[in-house]
Design a protein that fits this description.
By secondary structure, the chain is an alpha/beta fold. The chain has helices at residues 7-16, 56-74, 78-94, 96-107, 111-132, 170-182, 195-207, 223-232, 245-256, 280-292, 309-324, 344-359, 410-418, 433-442; strands at residues 22-24, 27-29, 36-40, 47-52, 138-141, 147-155, 159-162, 186-189, 215-217, 238-242, 261-265, 270-274, 302-308, 363-366, 381-384, 401-407, 425-429, 447-450, 469-470, 483-491. A 7-stranded mixed beta sheet has the order 14-15-16-13-12-17-18, with helices on both faces. Strands 9-8-7-10-11-19 form a 6-stranded mixed beta sheet, sandwiched between helices. The protein has a 3-stranded antiparallel beta sheet with strand order 5-6-20, with no helix packed on it. The radius of gyration is 23 Å and the shape is globular. The structure holds NADP nicotinamide-adenine-dinucleotide phosphate. It comes from Flexivirga aerilata. InterPro entries: Ald_DH/histidinol_DH, Ald_DH_C, Ald_DH_CS_GLU, Ald_DH_N, Aldehyde_DH_dom, Aldehyde_DH_Superfamily.
């Protein structure tokens, strides 16, 4: 069924079918005292639903369930875990239309992008289903010959999984997939702006046959008060967090006391470098993908677009043409390519960063001011001659604003690209093989897109260095984050 034009009554039906309670020990239950909070549509500001607002006691109950379920789940056969993940993969794909609309309503991105995210999210389940079957070990002779080493891998134990609003489903499956594959139970806390997609995922996991207590979902408005006692309880063995670097640092400190295993997928400040030997059509298409995916609200978004001076004007004009041709509007409307930003704070930040860059001498080629009216819209914007000391060269823009900075030499641009505390992803566009490899190796980031504007792939190791994070998600390495290595020494 095509849900794009089902209108308000269809939306109401979809919303009425989506769970709004907490998922604890395999059952949906209200929060303590029946507390709820509103979830609203960023395209209109209107309330979509009210979901359970968990208290610290609710959080404790969720962790109780995860801890109780852990031993039996660790003992399940890898093929049983494979079956659950593949069942959930299939349900996600069967329900992609409903799930995409739900995501667009709560998060704002255009329907085509929501569909893309549901597919991406489902692929993590398909990928990690197979990984469950491949958990390996070893058997080795001691160098002196008098002993043997048996090397086994075991689930880490109950996990706390905290996810952001910008990819409401995929940031969840990227953690839940490997946790289930490894045999770990979890308490999942989605962002307060976008809990509905995660709650819909919880129902799918139950339908796919996930045992009670293995995944528990806690929605709340007081993340710190609910999660800190769980982190400090000593009963969880791992925290996997995706979100801002500022919150990640607070959580790392909390984890230190219990020496919790951590995975941290944090903020980015991606450089996007265009050399004068690049195919400019490809570079513009790459910049559009790297900048405009998710309205620019992505940790991987091109935040600083460095263009070699000889082609800077040509590139900027072409990019401005492509950006100004995009249709802005509510993500559920036909043909819309750019939806609203997530909330007033998100849009205000973009407005401030653009004003700051203009004050410092940047020129606006297209866009540059927010429209009046309901919804948190901001137009696709291209700024040129952005000085290196502009705030948007240092901070995540998290909006549809391309910030173009000219450069002259390779050494200069590599130094500028690396002059940031972040190190998630970099993009390089060049026609020269040697330069491509030289620059890709010199860039301080966990990932590099070489002549491509999107790096995310469930089968590849996603993650950053420096203040962009610790650990990797996806790829063959993704499941290792949820496994402990145990060595058993055997005398012979
Ligand atoms: P955020 O403010 O850091 O929030 C992320 C999550 O942490 C939310 O669920 C939030 O809950 C929760 N949280 C906030 N304070 C907490 C605390 N004291 N204790 C426990 N949990 C807490 O980030 P966001 O604005 O949602 O997401 C955008 C950020 O995520 C950007 O910086 C982006 O770069 C980053 N990101 C990184 C990746 C990656 O893979 N590296 C991917 C996507 C996004 P509430 O919603 O209730 O506040």
């Amino acid at each position: 069924m095509d849900l794009r034009n089902i209108g308000a009554s269809g939306n109401a039906r979809l919303l009425a079918d989506t769970p709004t309670d907490l998922l604890i020990d395999g059952a949906w239950m209200p929060a303590e005292g029946g507390a709820t909070f509103p979830v609203s549509d960023p395209a209109t500001g209107e309330e979509l639903a009210r979901v359970a607002d968990a208290s610290p006691a609710d959080g404790r109950r969720a962790l109780d369930a995860a801890v109780a379920a852990q031993p039996a789940f660790a003992a399940t056969a890898p093929r049983d875990r494979y079956d659950v993940l593949m069942g959930a993969y299939q349900l996600l794909m069967e329900r992609i239309d409903d799930l995409a609309l739900l995501m667009t309503l709560e998060m704002g991105k255009p329907l085509a992008e929501s569909r893309g995210e549901i597919t991406y999210a489902a692929e993590f389940f398909r990928h990690f289903a197979s990984e469950a079957l491949r958990i390996d070990g070893g058997y080795q002779q001691a160098p002196a010959g008098n002993a043997r080493f048996l090397i086994a891998k075991q689930p880490v134990g109950p996990c706390l999984l905290i996810t952001p609003w910008n990819f409401p489903m995929a940031m969840g499956t990227r953690k839940i997939g490997p946790a289930i594959a490894a045999g770990c139970t979890s308490v999942v806390k989605p962002a307060h702006q976008t809990p509905l997609s995660m709650l819909a995922l919880g129902e799918i996991l139950l339908e796919a046959g996930l045992p009670a207590g293995v995944v528990n979902i806690v929605t709340c408005t007081s993340a710190g008060q609910v999660m800190e006692p769980l982190i400090r309880s000593g009963r969880a063995r791992k925290l996997s967090f995706t979100g801002s670097t500022a919150v990640g640092k607070v959580l790392l400190e909390q984890c230190a006391d219990q020496v919790l295993r951590t995975s941290m997928e944090l903020g980015g400040n991606a450089p996007f470098i265009v050399f004068d030997d690049a195919d400019l059509d490809e570079a513009v298409a790459g910049a559009m993908a790297a900048k405009m995916r998710n309205m620019g609200e992505a940790c991987t978004a091109a935040n600083r677009i460095y263009v070699q001076r000889t082609v800077a004007e040509d590139f900027s004009r072409r990019l401005a043409d492509a950006m100004s041709a995009l249709r802005v509007g509510p993500g559920a409307e036909d043909g819309v390519q750019v939806g609203p930003l997530i909330d007033a704070a998100g849009r205000d930040k973009v407005i401030d960063l653009v004003a700051d860059a203009k004050d410092r001498g940047a020129r606006v080629l297209t866009g540059g001011s927010a429209p009046e009216g309901a919804g948190f819209f901001y137009p696709p914007t291209v700024l040129v001659d952005v000085p290196g000391d502009a705030r948007m060269a240092r901070e995540e823009i998290f909006g549809p604003v391309a910030s173009i900075i000219p450069f002259d030499t390779e050494d200069e641009v590599v130094a500028a690209a690396n002059d940031t505390a972040y190190g998630l992803v970099s993009y390089v566009f060049t026609g020269g093989l040697r330069r491509a490899l030289r620059v890709a190796e010199a860039l301080e980031s966990g990932m590099v897109g070489l002549n491509q504007g999107v790096v995310s792939n469930p089968a590849a190791p996603f993650g950053g260095i420096k203040e962009s994070g610790l650990g990797r998600e996806g790829g063959a390495i993704g499941i290792e984050e949820f496994l402990e290595v145990k060595y058993i020494g055997i005398s012979v």
